């Protein structure tokens, strides 16, 4: 029921996981149930976001950079750099898990919904994601 | 295990779904398990919020309007208007799914917890929500 | 499948629940599945956060205090004090439920991920949390 994904990120920004998640659900054989997507890190997160206009994710990035500025003197946890603590905060304000309905053998997302991993560190990382599929093969 | 709800919103603001979600759980016959509520859009979201004083949701709305201002020059994605990009951001900062314990045949919410759909667009919309109930009929 | 935890908080701040959640999963006998952690309140919430440097959670607290200031004149819902409405907003912006993969009989968290209850009120509270474990004993 669990499937591990490795996501190599090019640094801060979003990576579309929708196709890979749908492939896991298809391979699971589950027809009706739930699919939980989980990221095993506290400086990257998961979001459901508009999937048609890439500008939406650029605007989201700009908003996050303004809301939680790198190098903010408020932060004392700076061991790994200016983007360290902002990454943890962006992660807490978004999502580590997404629980999606599985209907008729696939994640029943809205037309404009995509599943994205959001890398919050500026450097490239390898991120571990677990996709769990629960339900009946009916 | 899935039940579709259609929520007609009068524009920006919250709609109480608690009763409808509890009715789905009751009708499912599940006694012990989980209930996942999912919204199939990226410009409306779900929250668990205080259910006694409507002022709480008015204050929440005022806070969101200040945090993510309509018409902010930061945003380039403005095709559908000043409230378009703010709606996507409010959605990412809140929730597309809520996973609730089902105990004794009902969602075991706290006394002051209500399930709300939060419409982030200023115009009325018809929103699709899926309530999934998983568990044993014990 | 459900286990109730009572968390006594010393007022605003985070309480580490990781060990208690792992104990519930171990006691459940479930080997592969999902663990849902749910808090039955709207002025306390749940987060997955970096678990090595306590400064991370102090910085997070400082950020939240700046983002949602106690006593902000924007808020009309002030019956229970200056920290009342900020507590509801912090709760909405973070999480009431966390859905975690159970692999090999334990929550498969990342090395640096801890499960925390975040008390948002300044006074001590007793908080109710439900840990639900679903899956196969394989």
Structure, explained:
The structure is a homotrimer of 138-residue chains. The first copy, chain A, is α+β, with helices and mostly antiparallel strands and 138 residues long. The first copy, chain A, has one domain: Sandwich (Jelly Rolls), CATH 2.60.120.460. Chain A is built from three helices and eight strands; from the N terminus they run E-E-H-E-E-H-H-E-E-E-E. Chain A has helices spanning 18-28, 54-67, 84-93, and strands at 2-9, 13-16, 32-39, 44-50, 97-103, 106-107, 113-119, 125-136. A five-stranded antiparallel beta sheet of chain A has the order 1-8-3-5-6, with helices on one face. The longest helix of chain A is centred in the middle third of the chain and has 14 residues, at 54-67. The model of chain A has no long low-confidence stretch (mean pLDDT 97). Chain A binds chain B through residues 32-34, 47-50, 53, 55-56, 58-60, 62-63, 66-67, 93-95, 98-101, 103, 108-110, 112-113, 134-136, and chain B through 1-2, 34, 36, 38-43, 67-68, 74-77, 79, 85, 88-89, 91-93, 95-97, 99, 128, 130, 132, 134.
């Amino acid at each position: 029921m669990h499937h591990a994904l490795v996501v190599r990120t090019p640094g801060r920004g979003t990576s579309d996981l929708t196709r890979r998640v749908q492939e896991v659900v298809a391979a699971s054989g589950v027809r009706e149930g739930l699919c939980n997507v989980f990221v095993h890190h506290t400086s990257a997160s998961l979001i459901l976001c508009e999937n048609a206009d890439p500008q939406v994710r650029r605007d989201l990035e700009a908003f996050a950079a303004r809301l939680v500025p790198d190098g903010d003197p408020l932060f004392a946890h700076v061991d790994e750099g200016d983007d360290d603590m902002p990454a943890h905060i962006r992660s807490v304000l978004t999502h580590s898990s997404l629980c999606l309905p599985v209907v008729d053998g696939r994640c029943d997302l809205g037309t404009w919904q995509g599943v994205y991993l959001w890398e919050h560190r500026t450097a490239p990382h390898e991120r571990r994601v677990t996709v769990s599929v629960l339900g009946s093969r009916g």
